Amino acid sequence: MVLITEDMVRRRAEHNNCEILSLEEVSLHQQDIEKIEHIDKWCRDLKILYLQNNLIPRIENVYRLKKLEYLNLALNNVELIENLEGCESLQKLDLTVNFVGQLSSVESLKHNILLRELFLVGNPCTEFEGYRQYVVASLPQLKYLDGKEIGRSERIRARQGLDEVRRRIRQQEQDYLRKRASEKEEAQREGGEAQRGPKRESRSSAKAKNPGFDGRWYTDIKNTIPVPEENNEIQGRDEKEKTSCLSSEDQEREFWEKPCAYTPESRLEAHRHLDEKKKAKERKTVKTPKAPRTLITPNGRVMNVNEPKLDFNLTEDGDNNTIVLDLEVYRHMDTSLMDVDVQPTYARVTVKGKIFQLVLPAEVRPDSSTAKRSQITGHLVLTMPRAQGEIKMTTPRPPKVSQSSHTPEEKTRKRLEVDPSKHSGVDLANIVTRENRAGEQTSFYDNFVDNPDVPPLM
What we know:
The protein has twelve helices and 15 strands. By secondary structure, it is an alpha/beta fold. Among the domains are: 2-179, Leucine-rich repeat, LRR (right-handed beta-alpha superhelix) (Alpha-Beta Horseshoe), CATH 3.80.10; 305-385, Immunoglobulin-like, CATH 2.60.40.790.
């Protein structure tokens, strides 16, 4: 059952800054409302009230609305016109497609002297003989009935023979009320059976199915159950299986194709059936929440993640010893929707709640990193300097191969740039001889020139 709440009224008072005390018009149509309440206390200045296409069975709680001019209750379950005497300013009343069967209840509108339009199309009372004549004669203030203007001549004719018309209307009302009473009893009976479910078998009927309780003799001890009873049980079992095997589409078709009278009960049943179907569909379509994405595994491994599915370019600037990440974010997206987090081993960018995370090829310094947005392309550029002490990988150079064919003695003279005439042949011979004993092709002086950091040989 849907109730009229203060929040519901405020949400429909946007044109009045959500203030309901001074509200003059409110629309509460198609809300499955089953009772009119609270409006006469919250909205005393109300002039127009839309309540069409709901499940309201009775007109009530509107007598405080002294300024109400238009009340729309079309497509509801109203069966009686009542409780409108306090609506002194009422000019238009719409009861199209309801269940008003007591036509004499329109006489309660005599007190609404400003009433000019009345709509009763689609109600059972419109099928009564003398319907229009009776309404026109009973409500002299009316100018339009069911959208048709009431002329002066029609009003004069309606007053003639009014007593006879009123008598026929009363008789037709009694017939209709008896019919409605039987419809209500049938609806209650069907509702009770639906709640109780399948009938239980009485003890006497259960005994009658057993052999020896039906007053007959059974000479065949092997067949203790009569054949007809067995067939009945099998047929009943088959029917239950067929009923249980009906698909949802078959049940839906059976519900709508089942003949029934158009009554407030049947309309309410159809509405509840649609409501249950809608809720069942919503339960099926409810998506289970996704498990949070793993960004870092329990053993500390950082994962690469690209939830926003953005293109990127990761480069290394060897001259400046930095790592540059160019992330192609949306060009016209506000920068406030992005969040950047740089760690020594990875970089994380949150774009509109979606995470982009990338493992870096080397350790960087987060405190010296910068994030800039390109004014032309809108790309986000992260510049991350390498950490101090990080070994920079370089391509090893191949060793130079000497093509000189000088002997060790000549090479020594060339390195030292000495004049052989100033040194004795014994000294040079001793140097060469000592280096040759070590099994190497070059002299000590040659090693000294190539590697100046090597300490001199003592």
